[in-house]
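User: Predict the complex with manganese (II) ion.
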Amino acid sequence: MLSRREALKTIALSTGAFALSSGFSQAQQAPSEVHKLPALGYDYDALEPFIDAETMKLHHDKHHAAYVAKLNQALEKEPSLATRPLEDLLRDPAALPESVRTDIRNQGGGHYNHTLFWQLLRKKENNAPDADMAKVLAANFGSVAAFEEQLQAAALKQFGSGWAWLVLRAGKLFIEGTPNQDNPLNTGGFPILGLDVWEHAYYLKYQNRRAEYLKALMQVLNWDFIGERYRQAKS
Ligand code: MN
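Assistant: Here is the predicted structure with manganese (II) ion placed in the model:
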């Protein structure tokens, strides 16, 4: 059986576009260059008409890039942390030096969350979970449709900026919300899927209509990636 770290590394490697855990830490580089903005992995307009190209470009090139830059800036204050995987740092914020704790949680969380988010999306005909994942969702939430409803409800009620998550916690699946760039890792969970409900994720196209944006997101979930991430995390 794979250790958790090996399993996560396998997820990162097997899912192609960019590595989630192994790409986060490169000790041999100067602190200011440790964390890098990953490529989006597809064209800005790949999710049209559900998510528009202009939003994707701003969201990735400006918002995500800013989290990476500010995280690197913060790590200059604590170079020893630059050699550690971001996932580890996010797992225990209370253990971080106070000088960087808030920045790692906010900027580091922003980097981690967005790196995951890009991989969770794709456009595909007849987009749906495979039979195994559909069974898992049905067992935990009633049905795939019920899961999607509950996930959207959590995202809708998240006050202000934040995320709605499908979380693996002690071997069980839960739907949870977090404010800001917090992440289930902060509280001992593992994020399988996260929906960004910051206004920057939808305001250009959907303005204040978060529910409409969430409905669109349900059309472009990358179920191959999500199913694989769940299976690897679970094993
Ligand atoms: Mn965002």
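The pocket of manganese (II) ion is lined by residues 59, 63, 114, 196, 198, 200-201 (CB under 6 Å).
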